[in-house]
Write a structure and sequence with these properties.
Layout: E1 12-13, E2 16-17, E3 55-56, E4 59-60, H1 95-100, E5 170-172, E6 179-181, E7 191-192, E8 196-204, E9 209-215, E10 221-227, H2 234-249, E11 258-264, E12 267-273, E13 278-279, H3 280-290, H4 300-319, E14 322-323, E15 332-335, E16 338-341, E17 348-349, H5 368-371, H6 375-390, H7 411-415, H8 417-426, H9 438-457, H10 497-502, H11 508-516, H12 523-535, H13 539-552, H14 557-569, H15 573-586, H16 592-603, H17 607-620, H18 625-638, H19 642-649, H20 659-673, H21 677-688, H22 694-710, E18 717-719, E19 722-724, H23 726-742, H24 747-760
Antiparallel strand pairs: 1-2, 3-4, 5-6, 7-8, 8-9, 9-10, 10-12, 11-12, 13-15, 14-17, 15-16, 18-19
Helix pairs in contact: 4-6, 4-9, 6-8, 8-9, 9-17, 11-12, 12-13, 12-14, 13-14, 14-15, 15-16, 16-17, 16-18, 17-18, 18-19, 19-20, 20-21, 21-22, 22-23, 23-24
Amino acid sequence: MKCRQPGCTGTIVDGYCDVCGMPGPNGPVTSVTMSSAPAGVQGGACQQPGCTGHYVDGYCDVCGTPAAAPSAPLASHGTAAASTSTAIGAMAIGSARAVSFGDKVMPKRPSGQRSRVARIGAGITVVPPAPAIDPEKALMVDPQVPMDQRFCSNCGAKVGRTDTSGGREEGFCPQCGHPYSFTPKLKAGDVVAGQYEVAGSLAHGGMGWIYLARDRNLSNRWVVLKGLLNSDDADTAKAAIAEQQWLASLENPLIVEIYNFVTFEGSRYIVMEYVGGRSLKELLKQRLAANSGRPDPLPVDQALAFLIEILPAFSYLHDQGLVYCDFKPDQVMQVGDALKLIDLGGVRRITDDESALYGTIGYQAPEVAKAGASIASDIFTIGRTLMVLCADVPGYQTSYQYTTPPAEEMPAFAAHDSLYRLLLKACATDPADRFTSAEELRVQMLGILREVVGVGSGRTASTSAASALFEPPTLSGDRVDWRQLPTLRPDPADRATEWLHSLRVSDPVERLAQLDRVPSPTTEVQLARARAALEAGQTQVLNMIVHDLLLADPWEWRAVWMAGLGALVSADFATAQASFNAVYGQVPGELAPKLALALSCEQGGQPAVAENLYLICAATDANYVTPAAFGLARIRLQRGSIDGVITALDLVPSTSGGYPEAQQLKVQYLIDQGSTPEELGKALQVIGNARLDPASQAGFEASIYEKLLNNGRPGLLTLNGASLTTAGLKDRLSTSYRTLARTAQDEATRTAYLDKANRIRPWSFL
């Protein structure tokens, strides 16, 4: 019979595939009676990743796993201070380390190109589409600028305000004397440039009114006219002209399109694509109203999904040598299941040091006033927008104008440590400490989105996503070994990467010697030297390499990663924790530093933090489930929770190479702790599905039968639904001994097992 596992070419022999080792459709033949299936699962599809079987009598007819999916441990993912890694000190990295080395140099590290998606949620989560909006119903009935948005365009002073309503719409600023006007210049029925018939006012922006109009020359399609708030203001006029120039040359589906640039009665207007959706700010207002006037931030997964979708627009602008400057929730429009970046009036060239800067309090980076706008300041505005979307931060424009509030004050931050780390990096006070590109930020957001959705599901991950920075972890079973941690992926932009790939020297000492002879080592060569030194046990050499790398670039987190591995090897768990915690802060969307930090916390007396991190890993990526499950089992065994150990080992999928070892550990723990027929019968059930070799299976079964006999229970006992007498139990034990004798490696062991079998077998008379 052919094996039914996807992609396998093997044949079922004695109940198992001779290639992949999976059980056949009918499973292995055992002498143990299995329990019945839980209600409602008979015939259902197996939940193990990659398995094509169905549940029959409580177990999968292909892989043999029980029907009840053991997802309960993941529900214990908590936010208590004792289980979060923020309580652990982090090694200095970035600007904090640069200070210790003297004058710092802005990093110039290239960011790799990543694949881009065009669906909100990236196929990871679902974002409800925005309902269609009738353009005419979006018109303002009484177009007025709200009191709290009336400022002088020259000095920023508050103008035209009263404590109630009825403030002056036009006048002169009492502080600088500059004229202001908040009245719309166009009214319904006006025809601009003989082509655009005005329907009314849609909204007001920071630089002028926005009108809805029909294009008479193109089938009366809806367009938007954006005009100046003060037509005689030089900076505002210049910004409007700049918007026309940039938009006219930009071609990106995520950026609103410009059609024309016209004048009417001495005023300038930009003719734009009509985007008939709702802004993210309007979405927040709708949620506020639906929640009886109480703030109701977006779910974290939806907030991340929106920004992940719009970030390629920033990558495009930055690639064109432009910066956006004034990003906030108002500037993103959702149209059905698509997004548009609108209102590009503040766009300027990165090299422009003369044009007026536009920004919004609470979103603008602290250095902009003195240093100007940059990619780093755009990153800051994106981080602040994410913060406002997913958390109610009352002081984000005052006490927290340039800082992020403590995690314990914000439920979303307390529940999602990785999100909080991302905000801290994106909104760092020092621009050099932020993400270096919008694409780098997007990739980390994607990782956090997978984590948020995975943890929220309460189940182990069944899919995986390749990382551009780390290889998957190496499965080495239930062993605490730094070698099972993910390794760094080489940087394809490094000129030595191809040469290093061809360097195939297995001995670390010899490999280190060859690397030491490179005349001008690149960063990748230095990292390869560090790895070779680590494998050779030369910790002093490793520390020197790490020091040199960080001296050259204090933001080189890969050097800190190598320092953490060295500390693990040296059993310096405090340094390992600080190192991996620092790396976690630099790449918060990656699982590798979380797994490494969990391992160092497990070994360094921080079991609550380790358990929380292991749960995150198991919920997020299928490649991390097995090492995380073994880690959870070790932690729970230390605190004496055998049920917790079994539940953790149940997380290991049957398709994993660690599945047999996990099953063996489960059996051993059940035998060690079990005493009743019910407890030991459970161990027999596990044995029947563990895909063990005959010797191991017989050995475990013999241990169970011995324990039952030694308990001295007279008469009948029930074992997995079957009634057994003492004689029947001895007969089973005798059979197990004979199996062990047949598989023994030496004559003495074989004879010993046969003697045991003969001593307990019943006498027979011929």
